[in-house]
Amino acid sequence: MAELTFRREAATEYDQAFAHVTRYFMPFVLRAAHVAPGMRVLDIATGTGLSAEAALSAVGSGGHVTAADVSAEMVRTARDRIGGAPNASVAVEDGQALSFPDLTFDAVLCNLGLMFFPDPARGLAEFRRVLRAGGRAAVSVNTVVEYSYNHQINEMIARHVPGLADAVSRTFGLSDERRLRTFFVEAFADLDMHTVKHTFVLPSFDAYYGPFERGGVSTGQALATLPNEIRAAVREEARRYTEKNSH
């Protein structure tokens, strides 16, 4: 089965494509985890370290943040962002098989990442294992397919690369509240769930599509595998879609 991947171009263009999205939702995640000064925090699926950077501000000089991602290229970018902080560490980690000892962290954060885990239940079990008594895990996931920032492009690509269909569908695999609740209840005794709605507006189609076209994030990596004529067809289809849905 093919997978959406994060290589060098994906990491380089990630902030251009998604920094404003990640930063918008991070305060909700920090509050849900009750992150406070002095805490030890794991930010898993950290991407380029934007969420870990926010967590560093929340824990202050007396706390510590570990930023981890399964992608070595994302970790390299995150290290450039926060690696100079004396109370931060950055590592390549599989969220479904963490290398940390039991009871290591006061909070585990996963901002817009859990839905990409092949086995989210296993990931949540790992979050629980590395949490100290009384610790909290907080995650954010995509919910509404129709208004996804990049899911429509992923579906267009998957029509040309059928092997990606499963990976693309996983992007919204946790949009069903009952399914997400079931996974959490299996790993944790208590659960609070909230829905946050926000519309992101970009100045132009090129501002939206450009980072993907340049190989940014997993969408752009998948685009890069297509012949030029198919890439052009996907671009035109995406342009028509955005024009139709921007009014």
TrEMBL record:
It comes from the Bacteria. One of its GO terms (biological process) is methylation. Keywords: Methyltransferase, Transferase. GO terms for molecular function: methyltransferase activity. InterPro entries: Methyltransf_11, SAM-dependent_MTases_sf. Residues 42-138 form the Methyltransferase type domain. Gene3D superfamilies: Vaccinia Virus protein VP39. This is Methyltransferase domain-containing protein. It comes from Bradyrhizobium jicamae.
